[in-house]
């Protein structure tokens, strides 16, 4: 999306026109579906929290699972392939979650935007041309950096020791790589093979 | 208040407090949001339930600051109150706003293209069914002897196939209801941003700034 | 003069399918008439209606089209998006997938706003449409709380408010009961008579139309033919199968699944009450009117829908059995075959099924033979989602047979299969499943039966399940 905006109003209009109703509904559902699958594994989340919280290691719950939260973006980009689909998937997913009464309200929206922006950035670096492992790897890196930066501010990791920050970052990176990278790529491959998605 | 303006306000405040470490501001926002919620006759029980759900994560970040942070107790308290500020700010939007009014305000006052507004709105109707569908997909996995876990692709793959099917059907149904992308629509209810809305919006922002930078 | 729908030298093929759906079709759906379009599942009813309605989703899929469809004198393709809704609008099969707004009235208003109706007129037209469908009391109801029939009435009210000349309805009654069906049909007749509308309904179930439709069209072997109305009654009688008799299970007969003080509800109504009912060992046919709750019953037995009371499997409350264990014994064969697939190609599906089989019964040779019997053997590398409806169904049943559970619940396994395929499938189930002491409960509208396939017959009516010796 970035380069589209930079190229001015005319392109912005062109970009808006490339979005059709079906894609908009689809991108929203992609954003929502990832959250819903997460809801299926609620017990895992609870168990992880129960173990880590008393130790004061709650941020690691977040870091371990961050890759699940950020799946919507790269998945939408791989499937819909319109610049901005990653951002919109995460953002619309967050909007729906908020409207249906998720507890994090406005914070959800902000995280949605940040995560979407992060996953978008990697593909933007390839000029939205490489919907492959290269684009995906870049996206994994940008997603981790951007979302980690945000967590740093929001949960004030800055006060932690350098070792702890590094550990959190590495765990986040692995999580994003495995779930938002490898897993997402596998899902996209499966969908591609069915020929049900028009490019 | 105009729903879209209210959303913008909540969003801006939530964004701002993410960068501030001001317990008093957080407490003030919590109080203000709670008063607003009670004033709108939101049930105490509803608020209590949400408060309880938020408790575990709130304790989680509090403890991690206490054990490992450089300003343990103080920073822990800031994050604890900040988290509740997020929750109540969010609730004071979502529990007092009707989705359709928000859609109308975004369309009429903020000129968001109708296809985005109504596309997302239509998708919302599918969410409960998508949730159910995911349960069915999982059960089917068991029936076929495959455990479908969130770290394997199949569950997502099947859910997205369903979503793909539905989004085609739904956009078709909308088209046959006369919805044409990029064509202006008429409105039966005009939603406006009144002077009063603007004054409240700016007023609240100013109060928040004063609190943020004086105490 | 209201426009009619003309189909001229029409040819249609999905590029991904080997065979065209329509070939050289010439037919006219006359104006100011109520026409019924019938044909087996998968014959192309939805395809032709969506094309006539000019809905783009069919266009962007890759397909080959020759000839044309006209509305009045104009080719559908040349009608602008703005003009189209005034000419033609459509109601779809699944009433759950056509709503945008939350409440009934809002939905109608949404459609009128789309048509750029002056805001002063919107309320009046909304009120009239609600009044016409006699659903004023639903005005402020949330759409998700409505029953299937009520939802369809809301869609109908929307179409009426839009006031298009032609109204198409694609299997609109699939999920609603006969009374609601008659109700809506009467409204349509009234609409045709009072406002000179042209109406086309597609349906594979011909019940409930007596005396209400003007024309009957049948899709058959890539053709659409107009049939004289007299033939409709013959067709109706055809769909009534010959008298078949069934045994009534004796009390001593082993029970497989029992319902005790069981109540099944939807948010709107009670579907079923059973104080003490049992399904017995063997193959049971379950019949009942459309929308009565047969699928819902299966879902509750499959632990996928809430119910009150107790369901037991071999004297054990099913809620006390772990899901993984439970689904090794009881398996639901979904109405929609594609829901059951987990991978991409047929080969992959079969490998997965064999890997997860609960017994050694299905050897490679047996599977190969079954594929030949089902006429699927040359399709190994095809993507399962691109198989035809009937092929999907056959593959789905084979996959579940290979899994080899104790009990299978089959929801409409024969829908969309021709008589020969039904025979193949029944044979397969009989020799490889039932004859090995396993049990099945089968929901079916079409009751082709070969060599005593069913042992018992349970009828579902008036919120009750009852064993019947006969099938009417
Ligand atoms: N996008 C598509 N690509 C390839 N084949 C398709 C596609 N959509 C439908 N088909 C096939 O075209 C045939 C006709 O489908 P259609 O939905 O029109 O049938 P139908 O008569 O409405 O059936 P039903 O009674 O089950 O609704 C079917 O065999 C179906 O599998
Ligand atoms: N979640 C739900 N909310 C509201 N109504 C529902 C729900 N699920 C099912 N129904 C309604 O319950 C009734 C029974 O549905 P079900 O699908 O079980 O019928 P059926 O006997 O299988 O019909 P068919 O023969 O058409 O498949 C229908 O009127 C349906 O609209
Ligand atoms: Mg159809
Ligand atoms: Mg059914």
Describe the overall structure.
Chain A is built from ten helices and no strands. Chain A is mainly alpha-helical and 199 residues long. Chain A has one domain (21-193). Chain A is globular, with a radius of gyration of 17 Å. Chain B has eight helices and no strands. Chain B folds into two domains: 3-97 and 193-214, no CATH class; 111-176, no CATH class. Chain B has helices at residues 3-17, 23-39, 44-68, 72-94, 99-108, 114-143, 153-176, 195-214. The longest helix of chain B has 30 residues, at 114-143. Helix content of chain B is 76%, strand content 0%. By secondary structure, chain C is α/β, with parallel strands linked by helices. Chain C folds into two domains: 5-237, Rossmann fold, CATH 3.40.50; 244-471, Rossmann fold (3-Layer(aba) Sandwich), CATH 3.40.50.300. Chain C has 14 helices and 20 strands. Chain C has helices at 45-52, 56-60, 84-87, 104-114, 119-132, 148-162, 178-195, 229-239, 294-301, 323-329, 346-355, 364-373, 389-403, 419-432, and strands at residues 5-14, 22-29, 34-38, 63-71, 74-75, 88-91, 166-170, 198-202, 215-220, 223-227, 255-265, 270-280, 283-288, 308-313, 316-317, 330-333, 407-411, 439-443, 456-461, 464-467. A six-stranded mixed sheet of chain C has the order 6-7-8-3-9-10, with helices on both faces. A six-stranded mixed sheet of chain C has the order 16-17-18-13-19-20, sandwiched between helices. The mean pLDDT of chain C is 89. Classes of the chains: A mainly alpha (199), B mainly alpha (215), C alpha/beta (472). At the A-B interface, helix 3, helix 4, helix 5, helix 7 and helix 8 of A face helix 1, helix 3, helix 4, helix 6 and helix 7 of B. The structure holds adenosine-5'-triphosphate (ATP) (2 copies) and magnesium ion (2 copies). Residues 14, 16-17, 21, 39, 41-47, 61, 171, 204, 388-389, 416 of chain C line the site of one adenosine-5'-triphosphate. One adenosine-5'-triphosphate (ATP) binds next to helix 1 of chain C.
């Amino acid at each position: 999306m970035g380069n589209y905006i930079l190229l001015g109003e005319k392109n912005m209009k062109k970009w808006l026109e490339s979005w059709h109703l079906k894609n908009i509904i689809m991108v929203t559902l992609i954003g929502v579906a990832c959250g819903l699958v997460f809801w299926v594994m609620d017990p895992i989340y609870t168990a992880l929290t129960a173990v880590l919280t008393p130790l004061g290691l709650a941020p690691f719950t977040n870091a371990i699972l961050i890759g699940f939260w950020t799946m919507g973006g790269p998945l939408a980009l791989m499937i819909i392939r319109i610049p901005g689909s990653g951002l919109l998937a995460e953002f619309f997913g967050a909007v729906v979650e908020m409207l249906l009464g998720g507890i994090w309200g406005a914070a959800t929206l902000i995280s949605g935007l940040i995560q979407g922006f992060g996953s978008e950035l990697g593909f933007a670096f390839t000029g939205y041309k490489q919907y492959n492992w290269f684009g995906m790897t870049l996206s994994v890196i940008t997603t981790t950096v951007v979302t980690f930066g945000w967590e740093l501010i929001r949960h004030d990791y800055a006060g932690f020791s350098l070792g702890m920050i590094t550990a959190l970052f590495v765990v986040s990176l692995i999580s994003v790589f495995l779930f938002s990278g490898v897993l997402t790529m596998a899902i996209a491959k499966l969908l591609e093979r069915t020929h049900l998605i028009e490019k | 208040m105009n729903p879209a303006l209210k959303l913008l306000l909540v969003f801006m405040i939530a964004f701002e407090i993410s960068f501030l470490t001001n317990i008093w501001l957080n407490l003030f926002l919590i109080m203000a949001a709670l008063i607003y919620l009670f004033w709108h006759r939101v049930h105490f029980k509803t608020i209590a339930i949400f408060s309880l759900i938020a408790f575990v994560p709130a304790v989680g970040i509090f403890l991690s600051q206490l054990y490992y942070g450089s300003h343990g107790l103080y920073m822990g308290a800031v994050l604890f109150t900040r988290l509740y500020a997020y929750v109540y700010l969010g609730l004071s939007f979502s529990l007092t706003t009707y989705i359709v009014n928000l859609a109308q305000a975004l369309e009429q006052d903020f000129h968001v293209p109708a296809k985005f507004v109504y596309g997302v709105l239509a998708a919302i109707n599918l969410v409960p069914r998508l949730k159910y569908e995911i349960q069915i997909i999982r059960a089917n996995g068991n029936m076929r002897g495959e455990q479908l876990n969130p770290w394997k692709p199949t569950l997502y793959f099947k859910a997205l196939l369903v979503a793909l099917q539905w989004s085609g059907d739904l956009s078709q149904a909308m088209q046959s209801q006369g919805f044409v992308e990029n064509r202006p629509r008429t409105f039966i209810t005009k939603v406006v941003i009144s002077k009063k809305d603007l004054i409240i919006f700016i007023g609240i922002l100013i109060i928040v700034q004063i609190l943020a930078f004086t105490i | 003069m209201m426009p009619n729908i003309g189909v001229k030298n029409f040819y249609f093929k999905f590029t991904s399918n080997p065979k065209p759906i329509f070939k050289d079709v010439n037919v006219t759906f006359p104006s100011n008439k109520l026409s019924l379009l019938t044909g087996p599942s998968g014959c192309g009813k939805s395809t032709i209606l969506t094309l006539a309605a000019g809905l783009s989703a069919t266009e962007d899929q890759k397909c080959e089209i020759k000839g044309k469809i006209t509305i009045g004198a104009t080719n559908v393709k040349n009608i602008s998006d703005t003009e189209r809704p005034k000419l033609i609008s459509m109601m779809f099969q699944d009433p759950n997938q056509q709503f945008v707004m939350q409440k009934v009235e809002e939905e109608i208003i949404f459609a009128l706003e789309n048509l750029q109706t002056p805001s002063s007129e919107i309320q009046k037209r909304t009120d009239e449409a609600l009044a016409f469908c006699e659903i004023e009391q639903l005005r402020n109801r949330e759409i998700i709380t409505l029953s299937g029939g009520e939802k369809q009435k809301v869609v109908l009210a929307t179409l009426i408010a839009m006031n298009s000349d032609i109204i198409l309805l694609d299997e609109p009654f699939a999920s609603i009961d006969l009374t609601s069906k008659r109700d809506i049909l009467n409204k349509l007749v009234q609409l045709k008579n009072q406002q000179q509308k042209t109406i086309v309904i597609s349906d594979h179930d011909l019940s409930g139309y007596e005396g209400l439709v003007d024309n009957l069209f049948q899709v058959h072997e890539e053709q659409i033919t107009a049939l004289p109305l007299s033939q409709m009654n013959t067709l109706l009688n055809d769909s009534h199968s010959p008298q078949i008799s069934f045994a009534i299970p004796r009390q001593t007969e082993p029970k497989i699944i029992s319902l005790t003080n069981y109540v099944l509800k939807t948010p709107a109504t009670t579907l079923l009450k059973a104080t003490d009912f049992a399904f017995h060992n063997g193959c049971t046919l379950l019949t009942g009117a459309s929308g009565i709750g047969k699928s819902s019953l299966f879902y509750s037995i499959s632990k996928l829908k809430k119910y009150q009371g107790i369901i037991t499997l071999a004297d054990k409350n099913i809620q006390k059995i772990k899901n993984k264990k439970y689904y090794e014994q009881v398996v639901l064969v979904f109405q929609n075959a594609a829901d059951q697939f987990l991978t991409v190609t047929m080969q992959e599906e079969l490998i997965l099924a064999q890997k997860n089989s609960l017994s050694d019964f299905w050897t490679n040779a047996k599977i190969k033979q079954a594929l030949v019997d089902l006429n699927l053997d040359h399709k190994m590398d095809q993507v399962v989602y691109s198989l035809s409806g009937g092929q999907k169904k056959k593959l789905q049943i084979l996959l579940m047979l290979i899994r080899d559970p104790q009990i299978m619940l089959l929801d409409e396994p024969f829908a969309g299969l021709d008589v020969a395929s039904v025979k193949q499938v029944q044979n397969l189930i009989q020799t490889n499943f039932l004859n090995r002491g396993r049990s099945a409960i089968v929901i079916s509208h079409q009751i082709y039966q070969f060599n005593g396939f069913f042992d018992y017959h349970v009828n579902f009516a008036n919120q009750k399940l009852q064993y019947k010796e006969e099938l009417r």
